[in-house]
Amino acid sequence: MELPDCVLELGDQLQKGDAIAPDPDLFEAYEVFSAEVSNIFVKPWLAVDHASRLAVDGDYFRADVGPRSVVIVRESEDQIHALRNACLHAGYRVCEEESGRTNRLFCQYHAWYYALDGRLTEPNLRPDIKDRSRYRLPRYAMKIDRGLILIDPSAVAPEPPPAGPVDLGAIPADLGERKVSRRQRHKATVNWKPLRQHLLNAPELVFGGGGCETVVELGALSFVAVNDDEAALVRMIPRYPGQTELDVVHLPAPGREGQASSTDNIAEMLREEGDDIADAPLSRDFYDWYWSKMAPPAEAAD
Ligand code: FES
């Protein structure tokens, strides 16, 4: 995919060591957003939630990555699938709800039904489809490690591709046993890039501002912030160039539930500082990171 001119100009400025003067299109243009989906958003890994969200067979939730949608569903305790949320008939969603519990997936458009492992079971109005075993929603590479549900949105096939290694660094080893104390979604009318920079510069916001010992980034759009008493999974969900949602999942340390922060400052920060965050200049470090993801491989290596 050809990169938009404003992205190429940015790369040029970086490579010449010039001052960075980003074109507004970098934050507003759909063609930039579309290139970011391909070059950044779908790259591994993405931590989408804590495994306790799928506590019972049939539990599911949706994880959107830009315009793409994934359904994470529990068929049984050891059979958890990350399915492409697109009907095999004409591409409509087989899961519209954000989350729930079900024993099958259903496309409302022409009423095709799927089993929880993605097999087509009832292709309504298509009696000619005899061999249904050939029809299956593609599955993404995924794994559950330290209680985190991790997906690789770049690897999808009828049989789930093997999940490669993921470096979980300082994420607490007991995260899988922890209980979620709060799960919140915030909406921001801010491009994902300044929001990402702001959150990584001030991760203590997820703990109410008290401090943050370390942050482990998982791909471009998710990270785990770790403090003494608690950890928090933060996932950015870019919807449009000027709109980003944030999921924050709080995971207090065992026995420290009462000492964990009872609030975060994110809603307040977005309400009071949203415009300032959107207008804040991005650092050269950020742009270097961004260009390393967006650049054609040969240029990124220069
Ligand atoms: S698009 Fe799903 S049944 Fe037609």
Quick structural summary:
With 302 residues, this protein is of the alpha+beta class. The protein contains seven helices and 15 strands.
Question: Could you explain the architecture of this structure?
Answer:
The protein is of the alpha+beta class. It folds into 2 domains: 112 residues, Rieske Iron-sulfur Protein; 107 residues, TATA-Binding Protein. Helices cover 23% and strands 31% of the residues. The strands form 4 sheets. Strands 11-15-14-13-12 form a 5-stranded antiparallel β-sheet, with helices on one face. It has a 4-stranded antiparallel β-sheet with strand order 4-3-2-5, with no helix packed on it. The protein has a 3-stranded antiparallel β-sheet with strand order 1-10-9, with no helix packed on it. Strand 7 and strand 8 form a beta hairpin. The longest helix has 14 residues. It is globular and about 65 Å long. Bound molecules: FE2/S2 (inorganic) cluster. FE2/S2 (inorganic) cluster binds next to loops. The site of FE2/S2 (inorganic) cluster has 8 residues, from loops.
